[in-house]
Write a structure and sequence with these properties.
The complex is a heterodimer of chains A (314) and B (303).
Chain A (H helix, E strand, L loop, with lengths): L9 H14 L20 H17 L1 H10 L19 H8 L2 H32 L5 H13 L6 H9 L13 H4 L6 H12 L3 H9 L4 H12 L1 H16 L3 H6 L8 H10 L5 H36 L1
Chain B lengths: L1 H5 L1 H7 L1 H33 L2 E2 L7 E2 L3 H8 L1 H32 L4 H10 L1 H4 L2 H11 L7 H8 L14 H26 L3 H9 L4 H29 L3 H6 L11 H11 L3 H31 L1
Antiparallel strand pairs in B: 1-2
The chains are: A mainly alpha (314), B mainly alpha (303).
C-alpha cells in the first residue's frame, strides 16, 4: 500500500528485456542485458564486478555506517570513527537532547508536515485547473510555474528575508514562526508539472460520466480525479518531502533566533558548541537523517520514478 | 459518446462567468504563494540592486554602482573562478562517476537492486547532514577516517579543509559524491532503453567492448547525458549549502563561491544593495544558460 506499484518509467523498459532473456536463458547468454556484458557465472569478470560493487558500497554507503556507529560510541571524536561502536552508549543522544535537539527535530517535523500538506493541496488544485480546464492565459500560467522551478532559491534569499519580515498588504511578520518556512514552499513547480501531466492522461469519459451525475467541481477533484492520481501524488509527496527536509537557507533566514532552527540547520550549533564532542554532532546528524531514510526506504520506487520523469522534462 | 459531448455544451452557455472564473479559483492559492514568495522577492531584489539600502535613513538610488562595485571586487572575482571550477568539476565528475556506477550496477538481479538502494543514500540525505558527515571524514589528524586510510598506504595526513590549496578540491569531492548516484539513476533509465539486439548483433560482428560502449551505448544515452549535464551546470552555478556547511567559504576565502559571497555581503555585512546586485547577476546568468540550453535542445529535437 505504502509503496504503490507504479513505476511507469522503469517497469516497462527495464523489466521486459529481462523477462525476455529469462525466457530464453538456455539458448542465449544473459550477458546482453547490460552494456558491459557482465556475466552471471563465476569467473574473472564476475569476481571483478563483485569487487567493484564492494568498492562502490564502501565509498557511497559505508560512511553512513560510521556515522551511526560514531553516534553510539562512548568517546567519538573524528579520530575514533569505525564501523562498530566502541563501548556502545546512548550518552551522545542524551547530551544532544540536553542541547535541545528534540526541539529542533520538532520544528522540523511541524515544518515538513505542514509544508508537504500545503504543497500537495495547493499544487493539486493548480494542476486540476491546468489539466482539466481550458481557459485564457493557460500557457502563461504554465510558464510562471516553470519559472518558479528555474528560479534559484538562493538568488532570492536576501529579498525574501525582507518579505518574510513584512509581508506586503497584510503586513505580517512571519520571521520566527513556522509559517515563514512553510508558505514559501507551498507553490512548487515540479509538483504542479508532475500532477498536471498525470491528470491530463485521465480519460475524459470518466469526468463526463460524473458530470452527468451532477458532480460539482470540488467533488470531481476529490472523489473522481484524486483517487486515480495516487501514483503521481506519491511521486510529488516523496520528492517534496526530500526537498523540504533538505532546506537550509530558508529556515536560516526565516528564523528570528536559533531556537527557530530546523534540525538540519541546528547541526551547525552543535558543531560550534565547544563543550560537546563529535559524537554529539553525529547523534544530531543521525536524528536529522532518519526521517528521510524512512521515507526513502518505504517509497523508493516513487522517488526513482520522479527523478527520471523530472529529468526528461527538465 | 455523442450524447456526452453535447450535454456540457448548453451548461457552458448558461454559466459563462462561472466557467471562466472556476479555473482561476483553483489556481489562486498556488499563484498567490508564488507571487508573494517567489516573484515579489525577485522583483524586489532587482529593485534593491540599484539602491544603497540604509534601514533607517531611507534608500538612496545609486544606479549601477552596486554592480560595478561587486564585479570589480577581487573577492567576488575569485568567487567566480571558484564557482565555475566547482560547478564544472562537480558536473563532469558527477557524470563520469555516475556513468561508471550505472554501467557497474545495471541489471535485474536482486542483489544489484539492494546495492543500488544503498549507493543512492547520499541523494536522499539532507545536504547539511552530508556536510557534517564529511567534516568528520576529513578530520585533519592522522586518525581521521580518510586520513587513516591514507596512512595505510603510507601517505601523510592531509588537512583537507584547513588548507587553502586542498579545501576547494575536498568540497568538489563531496559534491561529486552527492551528485553521482543521482546521475546514476537517470543514466540507468537511459541504459534500460538501449535495444538489446544491437548488443547481440555487435557481439556477432566481433566488436570490442570499447567500440560497443562508444557506438551503441553512448549514442543511446546521449539525451540523458545532455539533460544531466545541463541540470548539473545550472545547479553548480548556484551552489551554496554544500560550501556553506562544509567550509563556510574558508579558509582564507579559498572556497568562497558566488552565493556564499553574496550571503556574507547581505547578512553579515548588511550590504543589501550589493548582495542584491550579486544575486541579480547570478539570476541573469542562470536564466541565460537555461534559455540557451532549451533553445539548443529544441533545435536538436527538430533535426
Amino acid at each position: 500500500m505504502s509503496a504503490p506499484a507504479i513505476d511507469p518509467v522503469r517497469t516497462p523498459v527495464t523489466a521486459s528485456p529481462a523477462r525476455q532473456s529469462a525466457g530464453k536463458q538456455h539458448t542465449t547468454p544473459a550477458r546482453f542485458d547490460t552494456a558491459l556484458g557482465w556475466s552471471d557465472r563465476p569467473g574473472p569478470a564476475w569476481a571483478l564486478r563483485v569487487l567493484l560493487c564492494l568498492l562502490a558500497l564502501g565509498v557511497f554507503a559505508a560512511p553512513f555506517l560510521t556515522i551511526f556507529s560514531g553516534s553510539f560510541s562512548e568517546k567519538a571524536s573524528g579520530s575514533t570513527l569505525s564501523f562498530l561502536p566502541h563501548h556502545p552508549t546512548l550518552l551522545n543522544f542524551e547530551v544532544a537532547g540536553q542541547r535541545g535537539i528534540w526541539d529542533y527535530f520538532g520544528n522540523s517535523l511541524v515544518i515538513a508536515g505542514g509544508a508537504l500538506l500545503l504543497q500537495l493541496v495547493v499544487c493539486t488544485l493548480a494542476a486540476y485547473a491546468l489539466a482539466r480546464h481550458k481557459f485564457r492565459g493557460q500557457a502563461l500560467v504554465l510558464t510562471l510555474f516553470m519559472l518558479t522551478m528555474m528560479l534559484p532559491e538562493e538568488v532570492i534569499a536576501i529579498p525574501l528575508s525582507l518579505v518574510l519580515g513584512h509581508v506586503p498588504v497584510v503586513g505580517l511578520d512571519l520571521k520566527g514562526t513556522v509559517w515563514g518556512v512553510i508558505l514559501p514552499l507551498g507553490a512548487w513547480g515540479f509538483s504542479v508539472m508532475v500532477l498536471t501531466e498525470f491528470m491530463k492522461d485521465i480519460p475524459a469519459e470518466i469526468e463526463e460520466a460524473a458530470r452527468i451525475d451532477g458532480v460539482g467541481e470540488l467533488r470531481m477533484l476529490w472523489q473522481v480525479i484524486l483517487p486515480l492520481c495516487r501514483p503521481a501524488l506519491g511521486v510529488a509527496g516523496v520528492l517534496g518531502f526530500i526537498m523540504i527536509w533538505d532546506q537550509y537557507l530558508l529556515p536560516l533566514i526565516a528564523a528570528k533566533d536559533p531556537t527557530d532552527y530546523t534540525v538540519t540547520v541546528a547541526l551547525s550549533i552543535l558543531r560550534t558548541d565547544p563543550e560537546v564532542g563529535s559524537g554529539v554532532v553525529l547523534a544530531g546528524a543521525v536524528i536529522a537523517l532518519v526521517p528521510s531514510l524512512i521515507v526513502y526506504l518505504l517509497l523508493q520506487r516513487s522517488l526513482v520514478t520522479g527523478i527520471t520523469a523530472g529529468a526528461t522534462k527538465g | 459518446m455523442t450524447a456526452t459531448v453535447t450535454t456540457p455544451g448548453p451548461r457552458r452557455v448558461r454559466f459563462p462567468g462561472k466557467r471562466a472564473v472556476l479555473p482561476w479559483l483553483f489556481l489562486a492559492p498556488a499563484l498567490l504563494l508564488a507571487l508573494v514568495f517567489k516573484f515579489l522577492p525577485m522583483g524586489k531584489g532587482v529593485w534593491l540592486s540599484f539602491f544603497d539600502v540604509r534601514p533607517f535613513l531611507g534608500d538612496k538610488w545609486v544606479g549601477l554602482d552596486n554592480y560595478t562595485r561587486v564585479l570589480s571586487d577581487h573577492r567576488f572575482q575569485d568567487a567566480i573562478g571558484h564557482t565555475l571550477l566547482l560547478g564544472l568539476g562537480m558536473s563532469l565528475g558527477g557524470i563520469v562517476v555516475g556513468f561508471a556506477l550505472a554501467l557497474l550496477l545495471e541489471g535485474q538481479a536482486r542483489s544489484l537492486k539492494i546495492i543500488r538502494t544503498a549507493v543512492f543514500l547520499p541523494v536522499v540525505t539532507a545536504t547539511a547532514v552530508v556536510g557534517e558527515m564529511w567534516r568528520l571524514m576529513y578530520y585533519p589528524t592522522s586518525d581521521g577516517l580518510i586520513n587513516s586510510g591514507l596512512g595505510l598506504l603510507g601517505l601523510g595526513p592531509v588537512p583537507y579543509l584547513d588548507n587553502p590549496d586542498t579545501a576547494l578540491w575536498a568540497t568538489m569531492a563531496m559534491g561529486i559524491w552527492m551528485l553521482a548516484p543521482y546521475n546514476m539513476v537517470i543514466i540507468l533509465a537511459g541504459l534500460a532503453g538501449v535495444d538489446r539486439s544491437l548488443y547481440e548483433a555487435a557481439a556477432m560482428d566481433g566488436v570490442s567492448l570499447w567500440q560497443r560502449l562508444r557506438h551503441i551505448t553512448l549514442p543511446a544515452i546521449r539525451p540523458a547525458l545532455g539533460i544531466v549535464l545541463t541540470l548539473a551546470a545550472i545547479r553548480g552555478l548556484r551552489v551554496f549549502t554544500e560550501v556553506y556547511v562544509l567550509t563556510g567559504g574558508g579558509p582564507a576565502g579559498s572556497t568562497d563561491v558566488w552565493m556564499t559571497r553574496a550571503y556574507t555581503l547581505g547578512f553579515t555585512r548588511n550590504d543589501i544593495g550589493g548582495a542584491s546586485a550579486a544575486s541579480v547577476v547570478l539570476l541573469c546568468v542562470t536564466l541565460l544558460l537555461t534559455v540557451t540550453v532549451n533553445y539548443l535542445r529544441k533545435r536538436g529535437d527538430a533535426r
